[in-house]
Amino acid sequence: MAFKNTSAIKPFEKRIYLSSPTMHGDEARYMMEAYETNWMSTVGENINEVERITCEKIGCKYSVALSAGTAALHMAMKLAGLKLYGQADVGHGTLEGKRVFASDMTFGATVNPIVYEGGIPVFIDTEYDTWNMDPEALEKAFEIYPEVKLVVMAHLYGTPSKIDELKAVCDKYGAIIIEDAAESLGAKYKSKFVYNCPDGDRGRRANAYWRETGSFGKYNCISFNGNKIITGSAGGMLLTDNLDAANKVRKWSTQARENAAWYQHEELGYNYRMSNVIAGVIRGQYPHLEEHIAQKKAIYERYKEGLKELPVSMNPYDEENSEPNFWLSCLIIDEEAMCKQVRGEKDVCYVKEQGKSCPTEILEAIASINAEGRPIWKPMHMQPIYRMHGFITKEGNGRARTNAYIAGSAEDVGMDIFNRGLCLPSDNKMTAEQQDRIIEVIRACFE
Ligand SMILES: Cc1ncc(COP(=O)(O)O)c(C=O)c1O
Q1: Quick one: 217 and 194 in the same domain?
Q2: Whose CA is nearest to atom 8 of ligand 1?
């Protein structure tokens, strides 16, 4: 069944994207500086500057500029594995055979680096308040697997997780946190914990205070991928308060050379360092981060207002204790307003019902006017590659929970949000008039 634009809403001449790069001019100047000074390499002033600016912005002591957020996450896993389980033999990962708890509703790059290091991801279900890792499910996971010592958490679509609750559970079980802030650069969270000890260890304090996402875990990551809130066209960073960790990543990411006149190696190296040309783009983007966040917030608020009469709600956040970067605006359809939608591995169909709709119909409607939406990131426990991996909900083991002889179904929050939610066009260059047209076409789906 395909959506028909019966209200004849005019398509946009130029496509409205989900989230595309927005350049301002200084990016080209810094790139040219790299060219003219011949620092066309993985060293240079642009790299030094973006590392300095990032530490200042996030409030972390050290940052290491890398080729991608995925590379940063890989380095974070390796650091955590080394700290927890010691040096691995060559050809073996530092997390080999070890379970690692991970956000379930996230992009694959949050969890794949666990596997690069030989680890076994166990997925933790999502909560409805922020669409991030559920602290209750995390607690259940530690009850089932008390030996686990590493937790990787993402802040989906730029919305901070319930960081204090998650951290309290991790502290109780003595686990290290890796924070994937790839989507949430510039998002803030009001925490009750102090985060200023040399080794990144923490205590509690009476008054909550604001901190940036990417400053809560022991080893954290941000991304400058082309679709992110600011971009270098590619790029990422490892963030930490630990000098030894930062130095290790500088070494590993530049082929792990020992201090000798010739190429001398005692451990496995990678070619993960950021180019000074890419760093020039990021350097030119940083002064515009707050402006991009303000534009994205205005888009979120406009959707919220424009869709308020419909049986939908926006991706939620904790208004008192968090300030997202509003990277992507999303909606979720009320259960009663969902028409039948069936998704296979790659195909989907739905049965239109008057007054009801589904993400597929809305995405088709948006596409019919030349704008780009996207399904919610499909949860990791539903991905074929991870189909046999553990999945823990707040009720306990999320696999094999139903019984053919007993009525009832198992709760699976991630699957529910995936079924009923979608990402809306959230490009910061979209005008209010263009956004109104998108809102109009969404309204038409519920007629
Ligand atoms: C949550 C999340 N983690 C990690 C990444 C990986 O970042 P990169 O594309 O820079 O490798 C992305 C996006 O690309 C992401 O959305």
Answers
A1: yes
A2: 69
| Cα first-last separation, the chain | 16
Show the domain range for 252.
26-287
222 lines ligand 1 (CB under 6 A): no
> 280 and 298: one domain?
no
Query: Tens of pLDDT along 244-281?
Result: 999 999 999 999 999 999 999 999 999 999 999 999 99
Residues 295, 185 share a domain: no
Q: Probe ligand 1: pick from 73, 107, 161, max atoms within 8 Å of CB? A: 107
pLDDT at 410: 79
270 and 365 in a single domain? The answer is: no
Mutate to test the pocket of ligand 1, among 70, 73, 161, 231 (most ligand atoms within 8 A of CB): 70
Are 30 and 60 in a shared domain?
A: yes
Specify the residue for token string 């707050």.
290
The predicted model scores a pTM of 0.96
Evaluate whether 240 touches 220 at the Cβ level (below 8 Å): yes
pLDDT tens digits along 4-51: 776 688 999 999 999 999 999 999 999 999 999 999 999 999 999 999
Q: Residue for token digits 């500088």? A: 250
- How many residues would you count in the chain? 447
How remote is the CA of residue 108 from the centroid of ligand 1, in Å? 8
Question: In a 3-state reduction of DSSP, which class is residue 101?
Answer: strand
Residue 34 placed within a domain: yes
